[in-house]
Design goal:
By secondary structure, this protein is an alpha+beta fold. Helix content is about 35%, strand content about 30%. The strands form 2 sheets. It has a 5-stranded mixed β-barrel. α3 crosses α4.
Length: about 220
């Protein structure tokens, strides 16, 4: 029985393949004439043809009853196939649209990021202070110091002493009380009632603060 069933399936497959390689010339029910078209695929809802103009799909509803019978047209199967095809196409379009939206968002985010960085770099001079720095106390990620600006564009008077917090660490060999001259960038202030001005020595870090890409430098 298995041998007979396998032989029948092979015979049916041979018929389908043979039909899918047929060359047709016919007129559709809407009046179009198709000549020398090779059947490249038989679908439940129609034929896919290779013509001189390229690939063309002709639904069974546009074929004569003779061709419908010849290629095994089943209206119920055709409806199911059309519905599944429409659903698949809708899902594809939705996925494509979502990918396009995501790409647009990424492009917009990149443009905004680049613009923020550019504006921050332009504003860098307005927060820059060159000062004599006298470190006092040290914490894990910052240290306090008295600074005396020698060149300032951030509203700090030259020659006047200010008590500030500076982000980052000094080299281990630098001791409290040593005199250093540094370029500092104002990035905010500390929390609490004192609200000391807070600086960083890292220019790139200052750009990140000015661009709003890191939290406000308060604690």
């Amino acid at each position: 029985m298995k041998i007979i069933a396998a032989a029948a399936a092979l015979a049916l497959l041979s018929i389908i393949v043979a039909r899918a390689e047929e060359t047709l010339s016919f007129k559709t029910l809407d009046g179009r004439t198709i000549t020398n078209a090779t059947v490249s695929k038989i679908e439940p809802s129609g034929l896919q043809l290779m013509t001189d103009d390229g690939i063309e799909r002709v639904p069974f509803t546009m074929l004569s009853p003779e061709l419908q019978t010849r290629f095994g047209y089943d209206p119920e199967k055709a409806k199911v196939h059309e519905r599944q095809s429409l659903q698949a196409h809708a899902a594809y379009m939705q996925r494509t649209n979502m990918e396009a939206i995501q790409l647009d968002r990424q492009k917009t985010a990149t443009l905004m990021h680049d613009a923020a960085i550019k504006n921050a770099e332009a504003a860098l001079k307005s927060v820059k202070v060159r000062a004599v720095v006298v470190p006092s106390s040290f914490e894990k990620d910052s240290f306090t110091a008295n600074i005396t600006p020698v060149e300032s564009a951030a509203g700090f008077a030259e020659g006047k002493r200010y008590f500030v917090v500076i982000e980052g660490q000094l080299p281990p060999e630098v001791a409290g009380g040593d005199l250093l001259q540094m370029e500092l960038y104002l990035i905010g202030n500390t929390g609490g009632s004192a609200r000391w001005n807070k600086f960083t020595r890292d220019q790139n870090r200052a750009v990140q603060y000015l661009a709003g890409l890191v939290p406000n430098a308060t604690r």
